[in-house]
Amino acid sequence: MTDIVEIINKAEITHSLTKMEIALLLTDHEWDQQLFMAADRVRNKNVGDQVHLRGLIEFSNICQRNCYYCGLRKDNGKVERYWLTPATIIEFATKAQEYGYKTVVLQSGENDVYTLADMQYMIGQIKALGLAITLSVGEKTRDEYEAYKKAGADRYLLRIETTDRKIYEKLHPGMSFENRVRCLTDLKELGYEVGTGCLVGLPEQTLESLAEDILFFKTLDVDMVGLGPFIPNDDTPLASERGGTFMLSLKVMAITRLLLPDVNIPATTAMEALNKDGRMIALQSGANVVMPNVTEGEYRKLYLLYPGKICTGDTPAHCRGCITSKIVGIGRRVATGCGYRVKK
Length: 344
Ligand code: 5AD
Ligand code: SF4
Ligand code: FES
Prior knowledge:
By secondary structure, this protein is of the alpha/beta class. About 45% of the residues lie in helices and about 10% in strands.
């Protein structure tokens, strides 16, 4: 047996690897299929064959941050900005519930358009529909996180993006790595199910640094890990960078599954932007969640984080049917429950 196969076996059995071992897996290409198959087995054994759907509502593309990679950054003057009213957001959530979603993800750029009272009102109303609520609205104070939680929010997504401080601070002007970690720690302490994740293929990011990202997810004991390739956006300072590949993102995801066997891992939209079967391949390499867009109307086209974003011309009803047939097509089932993490 080669060293690589031994590392894959060790990860499948013990769910633990050193940084060096992860970096070796990421360097190798010969045994990629064995890695994906092992991640698929670990997924099946720990979280089963059900795929959880989360309905994503992109409720405002207004952002006061200037992340170098992101199309919604404040200094991108080409974006037509929008913000949905709380009433519209609640209406979209109601429709999502009618389409059979059990969770909605409320995502926006980081902004102060919505007051705390707005947020509490929306969360309360959506919660009353019997939906689980995931928030993804960026860095806030502990008090704000606590107020959202009390209002009924269940989960929170905040990617660390990269654990390499130098890269982090270069790409996030005016932001600090410490505060990012503070947010994640607060969210955990407040009882949220916490999701984090990283971008794969950032400028100057090394395989060792990606290994550190995976170990960070494990150390923090997060409940969800969403990751995908960095896709350069023409209207950002990183326009001429190379970006991440589908294969490397898939490998980082598969290793994440081996090391965090019971967490929820989405097959992300960015993966499908680089490979037309990206989400289904991801579901067969460790992922167990898909987050179809349930934003209605013309807004999806305006939520352009990166070019080539999928489903921007489709309706929520179409995506719901499309994703179900794809999931059934690979021999899996759409889950019937809310899909909380069941800790092993
Ligand atoms: N390519 C891929 N993902 C991106 N995101 C932002 N910009 C890009 C890009 N150019 C991701 C970030 C953020 C999430 C909402 O979108 O990781 O956390
Ligand atoms: Fe704003 Fe999020 Fe984009 Fe950063 S990644 S610019 S915080 S929307
Ligand atoms: Fe949107 Fe397939 S999930 S078109």
